[in-house]
Design brief:
The complex is a heterotrimer of chains A (313), B (267) and C (515). With 313 residues, chain A is mainly α. Chain A contains 12 helices and no strands. Chain A starts with a helix and ends in a 7-residue tail after the last helix. Chain C is globular. Classes of the chains: A mainly alpha (313), B mainly alpha (267), C alpha+beta (515).
Chain lengths: 313, 267, 515
């Protein structure tokens, strides 16, 4: 419990630093949001009036605490560009990225664990080498190249998929999920390769432990040992690895959303940065960072839960 | 597992060596000038004249890939160098002395890691303007925390070991202990971190160029070429395949090498 | 230990369950994805899907819209008393008739009967007066504000609106067309715009789509299509991939490479972008403050070869700050003034004291590929005369603040278009003290001729003076003038009626579907 409280405190401090960094970072970027809003033909007076309206004439720190207070109350401000509440825009876009993240996480879990167990427990030199080499190759393919290959093969050659023809979940869940399969796989495949590699070596390490030899000598069957003893121990590091993956998958979605033109928060983020739409950028950065920090926090706790020995460290 | 030849070390070494040779050769000579255009040779399929075909300006893709791989390689090298050196400095000081500065720096490193890496790089590049130096700077800063963390934990571990304690008793200065006695012990861990970091650097640079904030045309890096090739995926698939293939080979070589190094370490 | 593992698996199963939950919902909702038409498939409804490369990420308020992409879409929603047609003339819209007095000072507009706003409210003279007032007070387009400030009196008499100016302005009608008529007192224009056009705004989803529906109560012939869905890609490559796979009915502003690579059975139309693309030189920084250097660059650049490389020879050479759609002012002879001549360029450079060449930076907005491509070719061409150019790509916003506003640049490749259909929209910016004179062009002779042209009451005389302005720009090599870019439109053969406008707009009301 003490551990939990301590970890929670660092979580909150990290989030605070992240939000401050996010806020400050965008104060030093060249380019004035009023130029983007008013275009090239506006007068200097109109520009100054808008700066006041947006509160840009206030000192930075004052604005930061104002913004933080409102944020904690659920008011994320109004987009400079779209003139809509940022909260509305996020509640529209966040589910899309969440679907993508969850889906590729599900792929990772569902595909990598059976594959890893199979690869770890089968004893064959050729298979061993094959799996490792394949793993290495897959891990070397960047996600965006994988995405492009998928677009080419399934979109242009087989015509099973229309790249760019995204359908929002608000229109149709089926079409939306269908569109997400390839992007989710593009994110998941390198993760799967890593997980398989890890699980495999973890199982093999366990198989060489003394307790396995002891059980063998007591006459237990190989598969029984595997099921009852080895897997339990071998899965521990993998579980934390998977939890950390959930954070990395989110980051991976930034570029994959771009390749498949999925209008999730990552694309909104990139567009908002170039538009200097600060309220949107800050909100997204904080949300994404919070996701990563919280997932890492959960990973830590999970690790605790499955292996209390760690607490000593 | 005993006397098996280390296939990975060999395969990785050969592949990386080959790529390296081509890259180094590319600094002095390429079949065509990588920026020379030829309106008569737009979108040629791969042939003996143009090993990987030509692009929308009639430029030789093979020459550009070699040139681009050189750029990517150079950037990755610089990034890892910055990250590694700064990481050693910060990590060793924090790990060895501990205390409040350690706490603060660890927290800041954690916050940096909590940021999506691209986002931070994006911000730095938007502030400083695009260009090779700025990408190196942006990615270099991003790579510091991971190295710092590794070095820090190694130093924190070694600090408590007996031989360091005895060195202290003998009156060795902090600097001497840190860099003469502890640092060499971190080399095996650092070596694999460097190879992995190198791969991450190649990937990050490619991703940034892919998003259009990397290398400026007419010069090419593998990422920016891949991004350009996306428009011609249907009509000139060799453009994307050649470029993407080069990225895969470059990364594969080093990841095999790091796998081999790890195996060697275990033995 | 077992319990703990179980807990972890439960947690995972929960996540997977969440996903299954999502999947389960698919059976309940009918798959509406059929609505997105495929060019090869059958039409389900009288509607089209248009791909656009730029999110209309603006305020939708008619007087606050800035982005060309937003204006292009909203052209179908808003109308002024008059509006431009495809020939560049102004035709009646919300007004049914107008009259200009002999001295050019008084305009009388008759309000059309039965004009209804998209929110069902009838349009009255009150709304028109309100629109003029609001536009003059809030418009972000300075030229419109300036033109409207010349109004000394505006009032309504019955169903006519009478406007009196303090001086005649031959271009006044073009500004009237920018005063979109909106309902008085309606304050949701920024997010839910209401106008009188042939289409009404239905909905928008940020970065996804923008939907217009037919205005059933339109007074004129109105639109044939029931619904136009703009799908937003924000990335030319993605837009092209979607087009190529047949998900879109209409995409404008394609490059020739994309057209060549189009595999589906689309009909391709060619027009021009209606802008002047040039290597704009900052006349205030060395060496571009030297006219000889600027002329040398003009000789060094081979525009024909550049067109060949970037667009298979498509596009029109311009030679000065005017594009061909302005038939009245455009002079093709100016485009031939500086033929490609490396020797001549070297000679001029030598005379200017740059015998060994020099190096400079071309700053290019990265969001527009044709400009980047052009810059890439220019760098290669300038190498021939010993001039080293470097490309620096910047984001559009940085370009606006650093290059356009702060004028902190050496040279840039970009395109200037006309926001209203008159010559001064293209030429006023090069007057020495004009706030938009990005290149710091300073030529007393030009200022004088332009002032004379502005004051001229006679149209023929004015045209001649504007032409003289163009010649001055060309003679002094203000910039390295390049081209008006070719503009390709890919369109589903079943969709007919596409018409190029001399402005950056697509008139959706002219389109119809034939089976």
């Amino acid at each position: 419990m003490k551990y939990f409280i301590k970890k929670s405190c660092t979580l909150i401090i990290t989030l605070f630093i992240v939000s401050l960094l996010a806020f400050l970072a965008f104060q030093v970027i060249p380019g004035d949001p009023t130029t983007a809003l008013l275009g090239t033909e506006a007068t200097a007076e109109a520009r100054e009036a808008l700066r006041q309206e947006l509160g840009l004439d206030q000192p930075v720190l004052l604005r930061y605490f104002d913004w933080l207070l409102n944020f904690l109350h659920g008011d994320m401000g109004t987009s400079y560009n779209y003139r809509m509440p940022v909260a509305d825009m996020l509640s529209d876009k966040l589910p899309i990225t969440a679907i993508l993240t969850l889906m590729s996480f599900a792929f990772t879990v569902v595909l990598s664990i059976p594959l890893g167990i199979w690869a770890g427990s089968t004893k064959s030199r050729a298979l061993d080498l094959g799996v490792t080499v394949l793993d290495q190759i897959i891990m070397s393919v960047p996600q965006f190249f994988l995405g492009m290959l998928a677009c080419y093969v399934f979109g242009n050659l087989f015509r099973l998929f229309v790249p760019g023809n995204f359908v929002s979940y608000t229109v149709s869940w089926g079409a939306c999920l269908g569109y997400m399969v390839l992007p989710a796989l593009a994110i998941a495949i390198p993760r799967i390769a890593m997980t398989v590699k890890m699980l495999r070596s973890s199982i093999q390490t366990q198989l060489q432990q003394d307790y396995v030899r002891t059980s063998r000598s007591r006459g237990s069957g190989r598969s029984k040992i595997l099921r009852r003893h080895v897997l339990k121990n071998a899965l521990i590091p993998v579980i934390t690895f998977l939890a950390v993956s959930a954070a990395e998958i989110m980051t991976g979605s930034i570029i994959v959303e771009q390749v498949f033109t999925i209008p999730g928060i990552s694309r909104l983020l990139l567009a908002s940065i170039s538009n200097r739409d600060f309220p949107v950028v800050q909100a997204i950065v904080v949300v994404v960072a919070a996701w990563i920090v919280i997932v890492n926090f959960v990973a830590d706790l999970l690790y605790q839960l499955v292996d209390p020995r760690i607490r000593l460290r | 597992m005993k006397k098996r030849a280390n296939v990975f070390l060999w395969a990785g070494g050969i592949l990386s060596g080959l790529m390296l040779c081509i890259i180094i050769l590319g600094y002095f000579w390429t079949p065509y000038d990588p920026t020379a255009m030829d309106p008569k040779a737009k979108f040629c399929a791969p042939s003996l004249n143009h090993l990987l075909g030509t692009d929308n300006f009639g430029r030789d893709i093979f020459s550009r890939v070699v040139d681009g791989a050189g750029t990517s390689f150079f950037i990755a090298l610089c990034v890892v160098a910055i990250g590694c050196l700064a990481g050693i400095l910060i990590g060793s000081l924090c790990g060895y002395y501990g205390g409040l500065p350690d706490l603060i720096l660890t927290r800041v490193c954690d916050s940096i890691t909590a940021f999506p890496a691209f986002l931070l790089a994006l911000v730095i590049v938007t502030v400083a303007g695009p260009g090779t130096e700025n990408i190196i700077l942006a990615l270099g800063i991003l790579f510091i925390p991971s190295f710092a963390r590794i070095v820090r934990s190694e130093f924190a571990r070694c600090r408590e070991l007996n031989y360091i304690k005895s060195a202290k008793l003998m009156g060795a200065g902090g600097m001497r202990i840190m860099f003469r006695h502890i640092l060499p012990n971190t080399f095996p861990v650092l070596l694999s971190a460097v190879t992995i970091g190198f791969n991450n650097a190649v990937l990050s640079e490619a991703s940034m160029s892919f998003l259009g904030i990397g290398i400026q045309p007419p010069y090419a890096s593998l990422g920016s070429m891949l991004s350009d090739s996306q428009s011609f995926l249907h009509s000139a698939p060799w453009y994307a395949l050649g470029t993407g293939g080069a990225i895969v080979l470059l990364i594969l070589g080093f990841s095999l090498l790091s796998e081999g190094l790890q195996l060697k370490g275990q033995r | 230990m077992r319990k703990q593992i179980l807990a972890v698996f439960l947690a995972m199963a929960l996540m997977a369950g969440l996903l299954c939950g999502c999947g389960g919902a698919t059976t309940q909702t009918p798959a509406a994805s059929d609505e997105t038409t495929n060019s090869s498939g059958a039409k389900h409804a009288n509607e089209i899907v248009v791909g656009i490369a730029q999110d209309p990420d603006d305020s939708l308020d008619p007087y606050q819209m800035v982005a060309a992409g937003t204006r292009e879409v909203m052209f179908n929603v808003f109308e002024g008393l008059v509006k431009p047609n495809a020939d560049g003339d102004y035709v009646c819209a919300v007004a049914s008739d107008y009259e200009k007095s002999a001295d050019g000072l008084t305009y009388t507009f008759t309000l059309r009967d039965g004009v209804v706003f998209h929110n069902g409210q009838g349009c009255t003279v009150e709304d028109v007066l309100y629109s003029f007032e609001t536009c003059a007070a809030t418009s972000v387009t300075k030229a419109v504000v300036t033109a409207l400030s010349a109004i000394t009196d505006i009032h309504a008499e019955g169903n006519t609106i009478i406007i009196t100016l303090d001086a005649p302005n031959p271009d006044f009608l073009s500004y009237v067309s920018s005063v979109y008529i909106v309902p008085k007192g309606y304050d949701q224009q920024a997010t839910a715009p209401v106008g009188t056009g042939p289409f009404r705004f239905a909905s928008r989803s940020v970065q996804e789509n923008f939907i217009l529906e037919r205005n059933e109560a339109y007074y004129g012939q109105g639109a044939s299509l029931d619904k136009v869905t703009y799908k937003i890609y924000e990335d030319n490559n993605a837009l092209f991939t979607a087009l190529n796979s047949g998900a879109l009915d209409l995409v404008a502003h394609l490059t020739v490479d994309q057209v060549n690579n189009l595999s589906n059975g689309y009909q391709v139309l060619e027009g021009t972008m209606n802008l002047v693309q040039a290597l704009y030189l900052n006349n205030a920084v060395a060496p571009f403050d030297n006219e000889l250097v600027r002329q040398a660059l003009c000789y060094a650049v081979d525009v024909d070869a550049m067109l060949e490389l970037t667009a298979d020879g498509h596009g029109t050479k311009v030679g000065s700050s005017m594009y061909p759609a302005f038939g009245k002012y455009f002079d093709p002879a100016l485009a031939e003034k500086y033929p490609h001549d490396v020797e001549k360029a070297k000679e001029l450079l030598k005379e200017a004291g740059y015998e060994n060449g020099f190096s400079f930076t071309i700053t290019v907005p990265s969001n527009y590929q044709p400009h980047v491509d052009t810059a890439v070719v220019l760098v290669e061409q300038l190498k021939e005369v010993g001039v080293t150019a470097q490309i620096q790509q910047v984001e559009w916003n940085t370009w606006l603040s650093d290059v356009y506003s702060a004028r902190n640049f050496e040279s840039t490749v970009c395109g200037f278009d006309a926001s209203t259909l008159n010559a001064s929209a293209m030429l006023a910016r090069w007057v020495s003290d004009n706030g938009k004179n990005m290149i710091n062009y300073s030529n007393p002779q030009y200022d004088e001729v332009f002032a004379q042209a502005q004051a001229a009451a006679d149209e023929a005389e004015q045209t001649a003076l504007y032409k003289q302005c163009l010649e001055i720009l060309s003679d002094t090599a203000a910039n390295v003038y390049l081209q008006d870019l070719a503009d390709f439109v890919a369109i589903n053969p079943a969709v007919q009626g596409f018409t190029f406008y001399p402005l950056y707009v697509i008139d959706m009301s002219l389109l119809s579907i034939v089976e």
